[in-house]
Design goal:
This protein is an alpha+beta fold. It has helices spanning 96-101, 106-130, 156-168, 185-192; strands spanning 38-42, 49-55, 78-84, 86-95, 136-138, 179-183, 198-199, 213-217, 220-224, 229-232, 238-245, 250-255, 262-266, 280-293, 299-304. The strands form 3 sheets. Strands 5, 6, 7, 8, 9, 10, 11 and 15 form an 8-stranded mixed beta sheet that branches.
C-alpha cells in the first residue's frame, strides 16, 4: 500500500517564501580622492575651460654686482595648466507596474543607489587623473612597473623615500604637518606590520581624524579606501598604486557648484505623448566638473605588490 501522507514538501501550492522587508545594506567604498584637491568653481557663461597659471621661482642670483654696472636681470617664467569641465550622469527607468506590484520600495532604493553611483563616479574620475601623474616610485627600487615582483611591497623605507622626494621638491604638507597617503587595505596591511607604524587609536585623542584614517608613518597620515587603482604587469603581478599627496597637487573644478550632483526625477506621465499611458518614470543624476593635476612635484605614486 502506497504512503499517502501529505507533507509540506509535497504540497507545493502551500509553500511560500517570506521576503524580509528590510533590504540588506550595500558594502560601499570610502571615497576620498576628491577631498584632497584644490577646489575651484568657474562662473556660468564663461566657457568650459579654466586656465591655471604659476609664476616659477627665480634662480638664485649669486654673482656679485659690479660697481656701476646694471646686471642683465631675470626673465619671468610662467607655467600654464588648462582644464576642461565635462558632464557626467546616469539614470534608471522604472515602470508603473514595477512601482505598483514590486516587493521592494523601488523608487526610494533607486534614489539611494543613484546618489552612491554619483559619488563613486566623481571619486573615480579624480582618482584616474591623480594616478596618471609622472612622479612615480617603484617599490624595491625597481626600474618599471613590469619589473615589480611579488616581494616588492610597501615598507616604511618606501614611505620615507617618497616623503624625501616631496620635501626635495619643496612640496608642502596638506595640513602644514603631514602629507596624505591614499592606500588600499592590502597596502595598509603591509604597513601595519612595520615597527614604525603608528595606529590611529594611539593618537586620536588630540588630533582631528580624517574619514578613513588608519594611521601615520614617516610624516604621512594614511587614508584607507578600496577605490584605488591597480594594474597587472607582464609578470602577472597585481600592481597596487598608492598616492602620497602634498598641498595643491591637483585641482577639482566645476561651474558654479555643478560638481554637486543634481538629482533628476521624471514622474509617470511627464513625457507627454511619448508616454501616452503613463507607464514610465525615471530617476537620475548629472554633474559637470573635471580634475587636473596642477603640480606633479607635489605628489608621488608608489607602485608595489602586496603580501598574499
Amino acid at each position: 500500500m502506497a504512503d499517502t501522507t501529505n507533507t509540506y514538501s509535497s504540497l507545493t501550492n502551500e509553500q511560500k517564501t517570506y521576503f524580509e522587508r528590510k533590504l540588506l545594506s550595500r558594502l560601499l567604498p570610502n571615497l576620498v580622492f576628491a577631498k584632497y584637491g584644490q577646489k575651484k568653481s568657474m562662473p556660468k557663461n564663461e566657457g568650459d575651460k579654466i586656465n591655471f597659471r604659476r609664476f616659477n621661482s627665480l634662480a638664485a642670483a649669486t654673482t656679485p654686482l659690479t660697481e656701476g654696472v646694471t646686471p642683465d636681470g631675470a626673465a619671468l617664467d610662467i607655467t600654464k595648466v588648462e582644464a576642461q569641465v565635462a558632464q557626467y550622469g546616469n539614470f534608471v527607468r522604472i515602470t508603473d507596474k514595477l512601482d505598483m506590484v514590486g516587493l521592494d520600495p523601488v523608487l526610494s532604493e533607486t534614489a539611494g543607489l543613484l546618489g552612491e553611483n554619483a559619488a563613486l563616479v566623481l571619486d573615480t574620475v579624480v582618482r584616474d587623473e591623480v594616478c596618471a601623474g609622472t612622479s612615480v616610485q617603484y617599490a624595491g627600487a625597481r626600474a618599471s612597473r613590469d619589473a615589480i615582483t611579488a616581494s616588492d611591497v610597501v615598507t616604511a623605507a618606501e614611505i620615507k623615500k617618497a616623503v624625501r622626494t616631496l620635501r626635495r621638491n619643496n612640496a608642502k604638507p596638506i595640513d602644514g604637518k603631514y602629507f596624505v597617503g591614499i592606500i588600499d587595505p592590502d597596502v595598509a596591511y603591509d604597513l601595519m606590520n612595520d615597527a614604525l607604524w603608528q595606529d590611529v587609536s594611539k593618537y586620536n585623542g588630540g588630533t582631528a581624524i580624517m574619514a578613513g584614517e588608519v594611521g601615520r608613518l614617516g610624516g604621512v597620515r594614511f587614508i584607507e579606501t578600496t577605490n584605488t587603482k591597480t594594474a597587472e604587469n607582464t609578470g602577472k603581478i597585481a600592481v597596487h598604486m598608492s598616492m602620497i599627496i602634498g598641498k595643491d597637487a591637483y585641482g577639482v573644478v566645476d561651474v558654479e557648484g555643478s560638481s554637486k550632483p543634481e538629482m533628476i526625477v521624471k514622474a509617470l506621465g511627464s513625457a507627454g505623448t511619448d508616454d501616452p499611458l503613463n507607464q514610465r518614470a525615471s530617476s537620475g543624476w548629472k554633474c559637470m566638473f573635471t580634475c587636473k593635476r596642477l603640480q606633479e612635484l607635489a605628489m608621488v605614486r608608489i607602485e608595489s605588490s602586496v603580501t598574499a
